[in-house]
Request: fold
Amino acid sequence: MSAAKKNLTITESIVPFIFHGYTNSVTTCDCCGRDGLKVTVALWDAVEAQEVYFGTTCAARAMSIGVKEVKHRADAAELARIEEQMAAFKAKSEAEGRAFREWMISRFTPVYYMNEKELKNLEIITTCRRAGLTIGQVRQMYKDETGAV
Reply:
């Protein structure tokens, strides 16, 4: 929604926005209605509590900042979002790896007092060899027994 459509003055149109980053899935500016944009800036409109998509020029005007600053803030928001996703993926992957190693030790070998590095590098290979199985077969057994994906 544009400032003009809401009959707001420039000072009233300055609302807190949270930059979510760029998107090319929405090609129409919610402010001026311009269509066919290469990218739009995804913003969270705190007043209306909804996500809006503005072209860079409209976003700059709405925030009373330059287009370059809009691009900089959107890039920073996009980078933060990607880093957050990567951290969540890494945490999930590490948790799944720990669960798999613990399952393998409990299923195939007696408990040895080893540090984490030794468990990662030694136990998986030796456990599979002792059982006469490939790592793929052991992972499939783990999935079947635990329901892991």
In short: Strands lie at 17-23, 40-45, 50-54.
